Amino acid sequence: MMVPGAPTTMLPASEAVKIYQTNYVRNSRAIGVLWAIFTILFAIVNVVCFIQPYWIGDGMDTPQAGYFGLFHYCIGNGLSRDLTCQGSFMEFSTIPSGAFKAASVFIGMSMALVIGCIGCFTLFFFCSTGTVYKICGWMQLAAEMKK
């Protein structure tokens, strides 16, 4: 039982350093794994936002059938279920407005940076952990600023 103010035995410094080093390595690996998992989840959200053409769609109270996404939109005539679709990321001139063109570019760049960051996680096999964390951290910061 430890009594406050009573003399205690301390670990030698070399043993304390080993304990702290072991805890640090274990915690840094756990943080790295969590970072990789959250990066993959962020990439999935980013890709879905970029590719999904159904951001806002028609419902029961809308005056006209149709939907639109970032660079693709479909409009119906209200008489039939057929929709006329336009817009493609490969044909940049078909994107309806400048705001949607800018958003397409920024989301596309963000998606490329995040997917590149996932690829950079393979650098753990070739570089030091700190270097990989710095590279991926700056790439993710740039990707988030694009959104």
TrEMBL record:
Keywords: Membrane, Transmembrane, Transmembrane helix
Bilayer topology annotation: Multi-pass membrane protein
Membrane is among the record's keywords: yes
Listed GO biological process terms: sensory perception of sound
Transmembrane portions of the chain: 33-56, 102-126
Location within or outside the cell: Membrane
A cellular component annotation (GO) from this entry: plasma membrane
UniProt-listed InterPro entries: LHFPL
Name of this chain's protein: LHFPL tetraspan subfamily member 3
Species for this entry: Hucho hucho (huchen)
